Amino acid sequence: MAESNTIVGKKIRGIRESKNLSIEEVAERSGLSVEQIKSIENDENLPSLGPLIKVARALGVRLGTFMDDNDALGPVINRAEERENKSSISFSNDAVDARTHMVYHPLANQKAGRHMEPFIVEINPSEKKDFNLSAHEGEEFIYVMEGEVEIDYGKQKYTLKQGDSIFYDSIIKHHVHGVEGKRAKILAVVYIPF
After folding, report:
1. Which stretch, 58-62, 76-80, 104-108, 171-175, has highest mean pLDDT?
2. Is 5-191 a domain of CATH 3.40.190.10?
3. Which is higher by pLDDT, 100 or 127?
4. Of 51, 130, 132, 144, most Cβ neighbours within 10 A?
5. How would you classify residue 60: left for phi > 0, otherwise alpha for psi between -120 and 50, otherwise beta?
């Protein structure tokens, strides 16, 4: 499976430089630390979606801009047999800890002007129990395709099994992870107003 973390870091740096913004300015606008921005741009670590959405906002672009290959105006078809050969993106739990626990397979990275980001997400086993919750504008829909996942949402914890789904406002601090020590696969659709 090919991973495109390098492409994301380079795209973020390229967009930042094209807008004549310093790393410090992006850090201030996003609420992230300078070290986090440097780590992302240098492909040392990709955080969860929350911090990436904050970087996208700070740069004035859609989240999908970091993952786009082309800009198709019509419908985008994503065939299962071709997905294995396309780039995926691995995110760590947070912007300062390099553990990789989720692999995102974008399903619409060629669609121009989109506000929804659909992904198939493979969740790797993790023994960690103290996840860093993140929040960002928008909404998320998650459908469990395989395994079992937990969603920390505000002060609540929800456990979903295969076939279950959840729809929530992502402005509330949240974190999605597999049940301790087990793999899972989900369909996730993130809506981000722009």
Report:
1. 171-175
2. no
3. 127
4. 51
5. left
